[in-house]
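Convert to structure. Protein one:
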Amino acid sequence: MSDETVRETVTKGIKDYTLKMHVRATGAIVKACILIEGATTKNLKWKKSKTSPPGGRASGALQKSYGHRVISLKSRGVITGIVGTNSKYAGYVEGTNRRRPLKRHFVPFDVAPGLRQWAKSHKLPKAWWGPKSEGMMVGGPGSITPHLKPAFDKKVRGAQRIIMKALKPR
């Protein structure tokens, strides 16, 4: 076997191994994201709001809005897993809205369309949610119910184990 043939064989073997490891790592990161996403939605399940009565979760829209995405840049060897939501209201509930942290704040109905229906179904005064109203005052220090960060903190070790197991040589 010539040096050139050996070099080609070794190079092909390294590329094949690198591709297999990248595929395994991507799959593991998907599983890790699903683990954290599941814990996040579980944290939102049937949560009672800490706001003044009646409180509570109306439609589950925030819970249903969570998802995950994995971005794999094979050429750079980078894999990124993201768990999150596109809901504008999530920052208020999680307590990460930097513009109005831990303060009672106004939420426009166009940002949280379910809020009007929630107010109506909980028989709040019509002046609060009626057609002339553009939103409601909500929140305050007692209304923050973090769900994503606690889920991440609780499941990060499990996610790391999933990834390490996938990258272990077989």
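Protein two, convert as well:
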Amino acid sequence: MFLLRPWPKIPGAWKLRDREKMADPKGSLTVSAGFHSTLVADGKIPPGPSPVDGDSTSVPVLPMPDDVPTLKAMLEAERIRNTELLAQVRTSVPMLLSFQTPIQAPPASKKALWRQACANDEITSDSWRDIWLDHVARNVKEFDADSRMIDQLYGAYAYKPTICCASGPSLKKNRAMLKKCPDDIGIISCLHNFGAFVDEELPCKYFVTLDAGDVTIPEMGEGGKKTLSYYQDASKDYTLIAGLVAHPDLIKIWKGPIYFFNVTIPDQKYMEEMPKITRNRWVYSVGGNTFGASMYHAAWIWGSNPLALIGADFAFDYMHKFHSWDSQYDKKFQGVIPCVDIFGNRVFSWPSYQNFRCWTEFQALGGGSGHNLEMINCTEGGTLGAYPDGNIVQIKQMALGQFIDSYTRWRKLKETLDKPVAERQYEWVSMW
């Protein structure tokens, strides 16, 4: 056997082939001019005269070792090499992306979306129930959570829009646009964005945490470039909106204001025990995810409508990135399923995140109460509202810059009128 012969679809990569198929009995191999150059470049044969294009020549080759460990090691080395070559032949293709054609409704019924969103509830509740109840009790006892309820922020952005920031990979496209937001547009974000938002001095002062795992502690700085202790100190200037089930160690290190909300969980035992521990009646319906809690807070506590959503990909991007920074989850590209994005292209996601997407779309269809909350997806990527036949009309697709401009363009009129007549004539006409 010889470690020679190019894989036709990936020039320069190699596969094992039998000696009889590769070489003559004298231990030489007949190769083309192009293959000869490749062998020399890769150090597999010594430099020598190369045949003219269209001709061939014989080159000496060394037999493969017969022991299994060495063969396995060589195969692994070639597997790594092939992986590297695959990465090299990937090309960046410029594309003019446009939103898919709108469709009137999802292909699944509203009830089916709800069922899918709740598909893993029983497993999750059985695994986390005792931990949730323990965290509620600790947060009430150790941090006086019942005197720091979320109602202190009630109506903060009533009758105004709010931008809700998830942590998907498309966030890198437009989060800088947040700096153009006027103060009367609310901004609220998942805590996972904290490091990136602090580093870039984005005007978001409210961050939401829900997860009961201690993973939320390192994640609060994951998107930034400084140390975790730096972000802990920086938290003094920001407000944390925390679920009562949040990890007490996270609550302990947060130095800014904290307001607590409760969570409705589809588990009878939890819902029976929870009122015995806390008197917090501000119960959020969150769909099992922090972004859902952000949306609920913006709509039902702040009183905002519409909600603009960014970073709400619910999927990996085209380069298999799960966040807008290098993340531990980029290395976990396993167990994924194919989905279509809002541009009609194939992307991949985890089933659990598609369940979160189903919950969001269920809310866009009126949720359980039949509300008329308006959702505008300004993610500029991802799968929210997207199906093979098009994007559902219940979630409007729009660039974040367009959304902000629609709430600030009225200010341009006065700016234009304050200019000398000679300078403002064209602008005046083009305002409409």
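DSSP finds 16 helices and 18 strands in the chain. The two ends are 75 Å apart (CA to CA).
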